[in-house]
Structures are given as structure tokens and as C-alpha cells.
Write a structure and sequence with these properties.
single chain, 391 residues, alpha+beta, Chorismate synthase, AroC fold, four-stranded antiparallel β-sheet, 11 helices
Length: 391
């Protein structure tokens, strides 16, 4: 079965659930990793009050025996402490930038509560569970997926472009440890104080801030993904996965938008001969740069995968914008749900897990296998075949 997942639950419903289909049998699932990712998703400077109420811990409902995957659907669940969906007041003063008005029109409701409960970013807890489970499996093969915050509110976290990427490629484990030492999940902490001041200023004005997140996947084998169809291209899948996260408005791969402003000679990565490394890319080839971001033609090329997700500011403002009341049709001020000033650091974890899921899906499609043993055997066979390429 191809790797996939479904999510269930509402913001103030009884639970948030993720069911992952297609994980191979025989993997010792790292529940500590999953819960650590859930905790990171709730942290970060600029978060709102809900994070003080909910302390997310994943319960396993199916798919494990003695901590080992069975190959059957893995179901992970978080029970909400703030479960008041039937008692929550109606929302008629719809918020600009949220799904409130468009969703209410879609289903013919005069209460946006029917839409916003599912559209809420609370649902991303389920995506984190699914993606973190995939990170657990990817670690079996030495593949790491690491995100960090590049900027918030237009203020760059680092003056040295590419410094975070370099740190992750050099040592992903050390990079995560250094990143987690910052409330902003930056890899260069030099401007953390400035960014916190910016967030404080937005809070005092009843406003919100967005930002840019970079994610890097290391030690990927070449050949994941396919150019054959739209939905088999790994870059297309990654773009859809990231744009499907609440508040993400743009995604860049490698050079991204900058590639459109340069000549081809300054964009494409020259291929060169190199010594064969002891990694998942044992070919005798390398690149002098990584403008492509690790993907060409929808296929991984053996270089690190690099993406950036651009997040808009949260749409709930404590100094609300003008709107309409859909129950009366009159002008109003937008509703004020409990909200964050800045959720960019938390969103970095969601982005990290979304990329991990798609990378894991592509890996399992390439290798096949119902068990971890089969996946490992098939991957090793593939790596052996490209180790001697050409030949």
C-alpha cells in the first residue's frame, strides 16, 4: 500500500487524530520523537493562550505491538482538554484572511464556527504526528529533515544567507540542538532579541506577524520521485504539502524566485566527478552548487533537498479589521478568537513534518516492501546498482 495519511478532529472537538497507512512492519516507532515534535509545535515566542491549556501527547490507538509497527494502519490520537465544540459561541463576524466567510458561503451557514473548527491550525497537530512517525522511519536510513526560521516580519534571522543550510548539511543533529535553544527556532541567534522586540510591538498594537521557514533534507538517495505524471513529481507533491498548511502562501525550491532573474549559466548546477561517499548517494557524481534544491525534473538528484515556505500573518487580530456579520448582513468588526501574535516557529515544525512525510512516501515508493527488512534490502540493492554507474 502506498504511504498516505488522514486526519480527523476539530479545534474544540474531543480529539485530533492521524491515521498513517503504508508504514512497513518491523519498525520500532520512536514515540519520544513524535511527542518531542508535538511539544515543539506548541512552543515559540509569540504563541497564544491555548498552548498553556493543551499539552499534546500522542496516544497510539492501532498499528503497534510492543512498540513495533505491524504494517497495518497506525492511528495516533491527541485528546483535547478544551473540548467545547457544542458549547462554543457562534461566529458571525467573519475574519478577513481566514476560511470564515468563504467557508460559510460554501456550506450555506450563517455561523462560521461550522467551518473554522476544522480550518483551525489545531489540525496541524495531526500532521505533525504523521510526519514525525515518518521521521522515525527515515532515521533508520540516516535521512534527516530539519526546518528553521529564516525571518519574521521581514526581519532576517541571519545576515549570512545560506548559513543555516550549511549548518544542517554539516551536522543535522547539532543543528537541531542549536535551533531548539532559541524560542524563535533560528539557527543564528544574533538577532533573536530584535525579532522578539518586533513581536512584542505587534502584540501591543493588536497585530500579527508572518515569516519564512527553510527546511533541508539530508542524505537522500538520487532517484526519488518521477517525471512521468504530475502527481508523481516530488517537487509538485512537496509544493502541495506545504501550501496545504494553514497560512502558507508561497513555496520556493532551491533558488526559487531568484532563478527567474538569472541567466541559465548562473542557475544550473554543474555536475562533476567526486569520490564516492559513504552515504545514500554512492554515485561518482556531485554538484558544484545546489541551486536546484536537490530536485531536477521532479526527481531527487542526490544533493540536499532545500525548500522555503512563506507564511502570512495570523488572521485573528486583537485590533480587528472591518468585516461583515453574516447573520445580519451589516458591517462589523472581525471576531476575536484566542490566537497567536506569531506562530512562525511552531509552523516550522509543521513544515518539517510535512516534508518528512513526502520524502518518506517517495522512498517507500522507490523501494517497496511490506517490512522494514524488505525496504532495507531493496534500498541497498538500488544503491549497489548506482554505485557502479556507469558500468
Amino acid at each position: 500500500m502506498a504511504l498516505s495519511y488522514t486526519t480527523a478532529g476539530e479545534s474544540h472537538g474531543k480529539a485530533v487524530i492521524a491515521t498513517v497507512f503504508g508504514l512497513p512492519a518491523g519498525h520500532k516507532l520512536d514515540l519520544e520523537r513524535i511527542n518531542a515534535q508535538l511539544a515543539r509545535r506548541q512552543q515559540g515566542y509569540g504563541r497564544g493562550g491555548r498552548q498553556k491549556l493543551e499539552h499534546d501527547v500522542a496516544d497510539v490507538l492501532s498499528g503497534l505491538r510492543s512498540g513495533i509497527t505491524l504494517g497495518s494502519p497506525l492511528t495516533l490520537c491527541i485528546f483535547n482538554k478544551d473540548a467545547r465544540i457544542d458549547k462554543a459561541p457562534p461566529v458571525t463576524n467573519v475574519r478577513p484572511g481566514h476560511a470564515d466567510l468563504a467557508g460559510a458561503l460554501k456550506i450555506g451557514s450563517h455561523d462560521a464556527r461550522d467551518v473554522l473548527e476544522r480550518a483551525s491550525a489545531r489540525e496541524t497537530a495531526a500532521r505533525v504526528m504523521a510526519g514525525a512517525a515518518c521521521q522515525s522511519l527515515l532515521a533508520e536510513f540516516g535521512i534527516a529533515v530539519t526546518a528553521h526560521v529564516l525571518s519574521i516580519g521581514g526581519l532576517d534571522a541571519s545576515s549570512a544567507y545560506g548559513a543555516g543550510y550549511t549548518a544542517i548539511v554539516k551536522d543535522p543533529v547539532a543543528a537541531v540542538k542549536h535551533r531548539d535553544a532559541s524560542e524563535l527556532l533560528t539557527l543564528d541567534h544574533a538577532r533573536d532579541a530584535e525579532i522578539k522586540t518586533l513581536i512584542d510591538g505587534a502584540k501591543s498594537e493588536g497585530d500579527t506577524l508572518g515569516g519564512v521557514i527553510e527546511v533541508v533534507a539530508t542524505n537522500l538517495p538520487p532517484g526519488l520521485g518521477s517525471p512521468n505524471t504530475l502527481d508523481s513529481r516530488l517537487d509538485a507533491r512537496l509544493g502541495a504539502a506545504l501550501l496545504g498548511i494553514q497560512a502558507m502562501k508561497a513555496v520556493e525550491l532551491g533558488l526559487g524566485c531568484e532563478a527567474a532573474r538569472r541567466r541559465g549559466s548562473a542557475v544550473h548546477d554543474p555536475a562533476v566527478l567526486r569520490e564516492r561517499p559513504n552515504t545514500n548517494n554512492p554515485t561518482p557524481y556531485g554538484r558544484t552548487s545546489n541551486s536546484a534544491g536537490g530536485i531536477e525534473g521532479g526527481i531527487t538528484n542526490g544533493e540536499p533537498l532545500v525548500l522555503r515556505a512563506h507564511m502570512k500573518p495570523i488572521s485573528t487580530l486583537m485590533n480587528p479589521l472591518p468585516t461583515v456579520d453574516v447573520s445580519t448582513g451589516k458591517a462589523a468588526k472581525a471576531n476575536q478568537e484566542r490566537s497567536d501574535v506569531c506562530a512562525v516557529p511552531a509552523a516550522a515544525i509543521v513544515v518539517e513534518c510535512a516534508v518528512a512525510f513526502e520524502v518518506c512516501r517517495a522512498l517507500l515508493e522507490k523501494t517497496g516492501g511490506d517490512s522494514l527488512h524488505e525496504v532495507r534490502r531493496n534500498l541497498n540493492g538500488y544503491l549497489d546498482s548506482i554505485r557502479s554507474y556507469p558500468g
